[in-house]
Amino acid sequence: MTDLSQFKNAPVAIFGLGRTGLTASQALMDSGVEVWAWDDNPDARRQAEAAQVPLTDLYNCRWEQVQTLVLSPGIPHTHPEPHPVAHLARKSGCEVVGDIELLFRAVPSASYLGVTGTNGKSTTTALIGHILQRAGIDNRVGGNIGSPVLALDSVSKDGFYVFEMSSYQLELTPSADFDIAVLINISADHLDRHGGMAGYINAKQQIFANQTESATAIVGIDDEDSRKIFDTLKAKGDQRVIPISGNTALDGGVYVLDGTLFDSINGRHQAVLDLRTAAALPGVHNWQNAAAAYAATKSAGADTDYIIEGLKSYPGLPHRQELVAIVDGISFVNDSKATNVDAAARALACYDMICWIAGGQTKEDSLDGLGSLTDRIATAYLIGEATDVFASALPKSVAVDRCGTLDVAVQRAHAHALQESKNNKIVVLLSPACASFDQFKNFEDRGEVFRRLVEALPGKHERPYEGAH
Fold first, then answer.
1. Residue 428's beta-bridge partner residues?
2. What is the pTM of this model?
3. CA end-to-end span of the chain, whole Å?
4. Which of 346, 238, 239, 219 is nearest to 295 (CA)?
5. Which ranges of 31-83 would DSSP assign to H, the alpha helix?
6. Do domains 5-96 and 101-313 have the same CATH topology?
7. CA–CA separation, 220 and 247 (whole Å)
């Protein structure tokens, strides 16, 4: 684990004892730092005690002795209102940071590559790590994906820490100084946690806050808010800025047109790869992810041939347009990670005829973001709390089946798809456009339940194409 002995001058408080909090506690303790750890959940406290992490009731402690509170990123510290522990810490003058902040302070000389965006950041982060590995460039992937950063092994002198950064994590990492920083896109999400859209945008652009002229900023220009950030960074000239797009030709960047990836970073528009040969990267949104990964790995020193090979061999991530099975010729796609309308729209755009399973705990009352993509929906199979809202929001041309639960939706979609597949190529797509917490632990749980339900369907099951998940 990372040496955090520089924090030995005072106790460090840890609030939130999930995987990240426990890892931070252990790393601090291994470095000889006194830890005061707490969680509102009694089960989490019991797990911490079993791991020999000392507990201190942070509601009733001497905050004047503490200089740093390491807060789990899922716990609000500003909006909609600060958690009482965060409030107590700030009231005493104690800084509130996340675990990634500890790593930046402990290892400031390392090379860091950060990825953020509303949609696609996990895929892009994993893809970057995969390409760098293929290119022989040492890297460690973590942050909002994979292992907690303080559990990662150190990288070599020429290697990179590759971090997916959520808006929550960026707010808690004021020292973040990314050698290469990527912003893929921005659309409305987590607005309650940031006090509105302006606060959310500000959190996202923090990924560029400490960059200097030797650093590289890679910015998507396919949405208005990201494009404004690109224009601002370009005008300031504090760092090298590379635009990327999944559908528009541009100078000085990386873009995709009709499925072909182009590199124009050095002024010459050079076709690099037909992305339709990259099986795990379907659709315009994944083409934008591929453009971002190409620009990032190129900036990190990877050779183009290795980047191409990495794009083609990338296996994909679970719950992100994951082809879980082909049953009687019908593809069943798990896109449980699509927890907002914009993310669902990206998946719907990839298929021509769809049995769409959607719903859950809605973040938006409108489905306007789907636009004409509703023409691709044969039937919408609605589940969870959003059922009535989505049924009202869909155009009358879309058939609606109020299923209530995922098991019913899978059964009915399968039966419908069997009828339609005689004359049409149809896909059963779980892309909920909603959070999962009304019926599931999280989006991963929802996706795994979908996988099990599909695997239990009668009929001839074919093995998905290699690299589908």
1. 332, 355
2. 0.83
3. 30
4. 219
5. 42-50
6. no
7. 11
What is the rounded distance in angstroms from the CA atom of residue 4 to the CA atom of residue 6? 5
The domain defined by 101-313 folds into: UDP-N-acetylmuramoyl-L-alanine:D-glutamate ligase (3.40.1190)
264 φ/ψ angles, rounded to the nearest 5 degrees:
-125, 25
400: CB partners within 8 A, 6+ apart: 379, 380, 382, 390, 391, 394
CA distances, 280 to each of 136, 283, 294, 311, 313 (Å): 22, 10, 15, 9, 8
| Beta strands across the sheet bearing 35-38 | 35-38, 12-15, 68-71, 95-97
DSSP code per residue over 429-454 = EE--SEESTTTSSSHHHHHHHHHHHH
Q: Please state the domain extents for the chain.
A: 5-96, 101-313, 322-462
In three-state secondary structure terms, 384 is coil
Element (H, E) at 393: helix 387-393
- Topology annotation, domain 322-462: Protein-Tyrosine Phosphatase; Chain A (3.90.190)
Question: Could you list the pLDDT tens digit for every one of the 469 residues in the chain?
Answer: 689 999 999 999 999 999 999 999 999 999 999 999 999 999 999 999 999 999 999 999 999 999 999 999 999 999 999 999 999 999 999 999 999 999 999 999 999 999 999 989 999 999 999 999 999 999 999 999 989 999 999 999 999 999 999 999 999 999 999 999 999 999 888 888 999 999 999 999 999 999 999 999 999 999 999 999 999 999 999 999 999 999 999 999 999 999 999 999 999 999 999 999 998 898 898 999 999 999 999 999 999 999 999 999 998 889 999 989 999 999 999 999 999 998 899 899 999 999 999 999 998 889 999 999 999 999 999 999 999 999 999 999 999 999 999 999 999 999 999 998 766 789 999 999 999 999 999 999 999 999 999 999 999 998 664 433 3
Angle between helices 283-299 and 341-348 in degrees, nearest 10 = 100
Specify the fold of 5-96.
Rossmann fold (3.40.50)
Backbone angles phi, psi at 429, to 5 degrees: -120, 115
Strands (E), 371-426: 377-383, 399-404
Q: Determine the Cα angle at 305 with ends 157 and 275, to 5°.
A: 120
